Amino acid sequence: MIRPLSRISAIFFKELAQLRRDRMTFGMVIMIPLIQLILFGYAINTNIRDIPVAVVDHSQTGISRVLIQMVEATRVVKVTERLTSIEEAETAIKAARVRAAFILPYDLSQRVARSPAANLGTPPSTDEETSRPVAQWIVDGSDTMIAGAIKSLRNMPLSELNRQAPNRSTPTFEVALFFNPEQRTAINIVPGLVGIILTMTMIMFTSAAIVRERERGNMEMLINTPVRPIELMIGKIIPYIFIGLVQTAIILGLGHLLFNVPFGDRILDLFVGTLLFIGASLSLGLVLSTIAQSQLQATQMTVFVLLPSILLSGFMFPYEGMPVIAQYIAEAFPATHFMRMIRGFVLRDAGLVELHRDVLWMCGFFVLGMIVAAFRFKKRLD
Amino acid sequence: MSSTGGDIVIRAEGLVKSFKGFRAVDGLDLTIERGMIYGFLGPNGSGKTTAMRMLTGLLTPTEGTVEVLGLSVPKDAETLKYKIGYMTQAFSLYGDLTVLENLTFMATIYGLPSKRKKQRIAEVMERYELSDLGDRFAGKMSGGQRQRLALATAVLHEPQLLFLDEPTSAVDPESRRHFWEQLFDLVDGGTSIVVTTHFMDEAERCHKIAIMEAGQKRADGAPKDLMAAMGANVVEIEGPNLREIRRKLLGTEGIITAAQLGARLRVLVREDIADPEAFLKTKDETNGATLIEKVRPNLEDVFVTATGEGRQ
Hints:
The complex is a heterodimer of chains A (382) and B (312).
Chain A: H1 2-21, H2 23-43, E1 51-57, H3 62-73, E2 77-83, H4 86-94, E3 100-104, H5 108-114, H6 127-130, E4 136-139, H7 144-151, H8 185-207, H9 209-215, H10 219-222, H11 229-259, H12 267-291, H13 295-311, H14 324-332, H15 334-347, H16 356-376
Parallel strand pairs in A: 1-2, 1-3
Antiparallel strand pairs in A: 3-4
Helix pairs in contact in A: 1-11, 2-8, 2-11, 8-11, 8-12, 8-13, 8-15, 11-12, 11-16, 12-13, 12-15, 12-16, 15-16
Chain B: E1 8-19, E2 22-33, E3 37-41, H1 48-56, E4 63-68, E5 71-73, H2 77-80, E6 84-87, H3 99-109, H4 114-127, H5 143-155, E7 161-165, H6 173-188, E8 192-197, H7 200-205, E9 208-213, E10 216-221, H8 223-228, E11 232-238, H9 242-249, E12 255-261, E13 264-270, H10 276-281, E14 291-295, H11 299-306
Parallel strand pairs in B: 3-8, 3-9, 6-7, 7-8
Antiparallel strand pairs in B: 1-2, 1-4, 4-5, 9-10, 11-13, 11-14, 12-13
Helix pairs in contact in B: 3-4, 4-5
């Protein structure tokens, strides 16, 4: 029992000494979470406001000017151009100067008068006349989020035109928003960012771990020592477990300070879950490292694994929106499970028990990864 | 231990290693006795390193059997690793670790108890003149210093058998001499050593050598015995126009090879020619030579007769 521990500690202290001298890597450990947290925390926002739009006002009446002000008052759009023809508006959209154009027709006043939205009390004459909208939006629909934001204006009430209080219609459903009632994007992004950054750094660091020994010419000596493959793997990942925990602390701590994201009451669950995810990511990196022939190849493979694991994890796009096959693929990556876990711990006050499926899967991934890596590592040169 | 007698440290039979059809080692038989320095002498690509790697269990033999210190290799290679030391051809310790860190790493990985570890590290640092270099990065040291560190780490766990793969190819002659003195000290302490080299003077220091070519053993034995049993006499010729004499002699019946050494031409004459001096003197080709005399053969002559075109 002494000898395996002794060999693991030999590898561990060696890795630690090398890591300490690798300024670049050491800097990345701190800088990656720091910069990405600040960048994404402030930059990513799914509540879209002030979309630049053009206005083509054929009507040129008091009503048209009030209507434009009402639309601007929603803060969804911001009028940046006033144009005279629809053709000009289309050109502006093509050139991406604006994302949409607001077209007010010549007969705007009549349309408003007959529109039930304005609620002027004028009895509608025919069905065809009342069903006419008052104005039109031409939208650059390529970005679904922008399109969705402008679509939300579709049923805007017009009663304010008549100096009436807006018609407070009773909604069909009542929606109560748990966990993030203010709908702040950072609440969702910051815990998710822990998963992204850990995936990135953990896989990146370990994918080079074994192949570096080969590339720097240390392999022949190393495999001549009595160290066992599994001891080598364990010794190599321990320093990175600490690094992963430090990174998690940086992200969640700063996330709390800057974006007021809660830690949740499940600190122990959070710790265990993060530890499991770090382990799973490290073992994945080690497997890549036993496949790669050079550090360059290891980096290429890391990128190949990183992109799907980030994009399918549910960090940016909801897991539920993906087709079933993509969901199966997403389930294979530890990041998907961790995304669910950490949002559960931090935001929903869930624990390891509630999320036991993800916990078990992560354990399995870690153990399997270590076995595969150790099995693939041959203490032979042929 | 096993059927192998206590005096035999390595026994290999019919050893073959093929790499995609190329036979790097081709039917090698070896018997190496305890307490000696055994050398593999041969040019690059002659299979020395491949043979050594099969003996340490780093490569799996395509054919043949290996028994090292009574253990079957590669089956028991992991047990064997505690009993052997290995110094790789290229420096393979960690350049970004200091001398002390490298030694500590190796001592820990071999599981030396902590008291013994400190003691052994101090011992080898003292013996291999590393005491003042403890904090130096291995990557920043000279060739000679690295070689001493590599030897120090290889013997840290006091192996019975030491494998050295071209240990002196990156060091100056002074360090080389010194290195060999240290090897003899180790042998004196009971260690057996297997070394590969392409230097004749190094091979001559070995107790026994195997001359390797194209993956095969061309000759083996003590350098002195090999020289005695060479199958050729050596005659040196002095005079003008040595290049021309050499050209004429090559291809002549009874002449194995001729090579110029400074102002002399060293000619290997087949052994069945009774009086090689007279034989050469009577030849037209040696006209103008001022001196023709028989000399003592050296290991290079043995090597030349045993390998290449000189092989009969």
